[in-house]
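Duplicate of #3305? Posting structure anyway:
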């Protein structure tokens, strides 16, 4: 066998490059004592059932008692899950994580009575309770987010029935997961070096970026041949999932599945419509970028499998972790001394688990809770992509830090709709910093292309998905069967409209809908696109040098879940119910596309 680079085992990693979890629990005994405290407190929470109608003091007592136990349980959970992820093969850590999950399930079922009982209170009486009791008023928005759902909560017997049907209603989605992750078998193909390699989703993601057209073409054709073979099954699982969303929306008295899904975060559907409208109005920009890609690659035909190969050659930037840390600090310095001080604390206090080791969870994330540091997991590689991941996760970590240090526990977290804005704003600041710092035209071209590809994949592609998601829910609601042919016909037309004339409409791409797990997430993907566009406006405001605009951004980071997401973003300076922020993002895309085109013309002279 060829020489394979061995990853270090967990205990071979330099402790300075690992996260320090001892501030959470000094010893395992400390963990066990909190675990037991949660276990002992759970039965007491069940005894509070039936007390809420007794008055403001009773309601306040129930809320604080429940939140106190959840808070302790979250700490236990975060510790166990971080331990688990640093070495997923470690049996002791597996046991910790498994026990903690069971603890959470028990806790959730012990407090399941709370929301229905709160909703059963007379609304006027509830308002009076909150007005009379100043301590209870601290939980007003928390209570509002529950009572907002009043019209959509059913009678207790119906709720019970729906809860019991939950597993059955989720079957279509589970079947897709099992088929896609476990049962589908892909053929052996050739990689970049002519070596035979077993195709998989992960291998496909690498091969589709190959600089050799025949390698990416083969990967594309072979992957889609497998999906094509199962297209009727996959249409059936997708249709089953859509039917579940439509059924839930209907029985809960929403006008449609989209309204039901967005109401969870109190997002008006106009945000979604504005996105789709603005993206469609700017599709000529995507067509122009795609045509430029064809020209630079020197291809007589541009296929769907030519959209992911890098067009500016091998990356010209590489960083060790120590260098990347310095670059991150410089790129984020526009956030001001307070933010920067906290970033430096993240580096010096070992909040970051840096390098890969055997059994470590892949990818990168930021995770923590109110009473712990917001930790970051990385799998460091000496390249630009890792630097982007570092500032991205640092964005989440600072958001968590500011929210937990400026809000009471009940408002110390935040919703997914606002989460990706904090991380993407940091990425946008890094792009700006790199373009201002490196004069070398090849580096400039590389960074610009990184930005353009990111925009294509996030704003254009995710909105294409969002449009398709809306289409399939509407079709099912109108009684039109979601057959494989119907799905593929529509998807192909949608894809042609998005990519335009410069790309050959390969028939295989008609089946792309069949392999996208996000279509099972229930109106999730549009948030990637809105988040990316909002980050663009926010980064512009921060870079303007006007410290009041920067402070407005910090106000957003400090807001946690104390208000609805759209309101929080308004405080930061971006109104996501209007289209101006989207237009501003497209202006930036166009400007950088011009810059990139001019650079490429100079480099090729
Ligand atoms: Zn993120």
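Output from current build:
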């Amino acid at each position: 066998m060829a020489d394979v680079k061995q990853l270090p085992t967990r205990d071979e990693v330099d402790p300075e490059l690992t996260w320090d979890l001892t501030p959470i629990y000094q010893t395992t005994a400390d963990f066990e004592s909190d675990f037991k405290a949660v276990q002992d407190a759970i039965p007491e929470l069940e005894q509070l059932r039936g007390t809420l109608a007794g008055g403001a003091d009773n309601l306040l007592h129930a809320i604080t008692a429940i939140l106190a136990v959840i808070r302790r349980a979250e700490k236990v959970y975060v510790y166990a899950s971080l331990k688990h992820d640093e070495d997923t093969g470690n049996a002791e850590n597996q046991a910790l994580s498994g026990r903690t999950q069971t603890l959470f399930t028990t806790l959730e079922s012990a407090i399941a009575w709370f929301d229905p009982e709160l909703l059963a209170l007379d609304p006027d009486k509830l308002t009076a309770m909150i007005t009379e009791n100043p301590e209870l008023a601290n939980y007003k928005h928390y209570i509002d987010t529950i009572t907002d759902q009043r019209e959509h909560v059913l009678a207790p017997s119906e709720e019970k029935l729906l809860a019991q049907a939950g597993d059955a209603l989720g079957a279509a989605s589970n079947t897709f997961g099992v088929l896609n992750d476990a049962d589908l078998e892909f053929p052996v193909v050739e990689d970049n070096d002519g070596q035979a390699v077993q195709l998989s989703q992960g291998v496909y993601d690498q091969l589709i970026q190959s600089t050799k057209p025949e390698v990416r073409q083969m990967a594309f054709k072979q992957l889609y041949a497998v999906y094509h073979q199962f297209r009727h099954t996959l249409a059936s699982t997708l249709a089953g999932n859509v039917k579940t969303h439509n059924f839930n929306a209907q029985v809960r008295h929403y006008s449609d599945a989209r309204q039901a899904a967005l109401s969870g975060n109190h997002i008006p559907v106009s945000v979604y419509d504005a996105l789709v409208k603005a993206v469609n109005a700017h599709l000529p920009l995507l067509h122009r970028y795609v045509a430029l890609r064809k020209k630079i690659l020197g291809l007589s035909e541009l296929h769907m499998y030519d959209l992911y190969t890098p067009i500016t050659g091998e990356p010209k930037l590489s960083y060790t972790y120590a260098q990347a840390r310095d670059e991150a600090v410089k790129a984020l310095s526009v956030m001001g001394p307070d933010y920067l001080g906290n970033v430096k604390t993240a580096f010096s206090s070992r909040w970051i688990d840096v390098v890969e080791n055997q059994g470590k969870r892949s990818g990168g994330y930021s995770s923590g809770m109110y009473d712990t540091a917001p930790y970051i997991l990385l799998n460091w590689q000496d390249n630009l992509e890792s630097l982007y991941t570092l500032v991205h996760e640092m964005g989440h970590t600072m958001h968590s830090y500011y929210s937990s240090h400026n809000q009471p526990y009940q408002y110390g977290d935040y919703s997914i709709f606002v989460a990706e804005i904090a991380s993407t704003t940091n990425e946008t600041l890094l792009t700006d910093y790199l373009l201002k710092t490196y004069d070398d035209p090849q580096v400039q071209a590389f960074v610009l292309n990184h930005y353009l590809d990111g925009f294509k994949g996030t704003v254009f592609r995710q909105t294409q998905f969002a449009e398709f998601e809306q289409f399939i829910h509407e079709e099912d609601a109108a009684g039109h069967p979601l057959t494989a042919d119907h799905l593929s016909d529509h998807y192909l037309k949608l894809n042609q409209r998005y990519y335009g004339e410069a790309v050959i409409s390969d028939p295989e791409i008609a089946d792309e809908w069949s392999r996208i797990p996000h279509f099972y997430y229930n109106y999730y993907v549009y948030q990637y696109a809105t988040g990316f566009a909002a980050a663009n406006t926010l980064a512009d405001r921060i870079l303007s040098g006007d410290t009041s605009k920067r402070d407005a951004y910090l106000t957003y980071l400090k807001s946690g879940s104390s208000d609805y997401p759209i309101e929080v973003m308004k405080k930061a300076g971006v109104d996501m119910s209007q289209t101006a922020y989207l237009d501003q993002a497209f202006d930036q895309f166009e400007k950088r596309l011009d810059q990139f085109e001019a650079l490429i013309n100079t480099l090729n002279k």
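Confirmed duplicate; merging threads. The pocket of zinc ion is lined by residues 392, 396, 420, 423 (CB under 6 Å). The mean pLDDT is 94.
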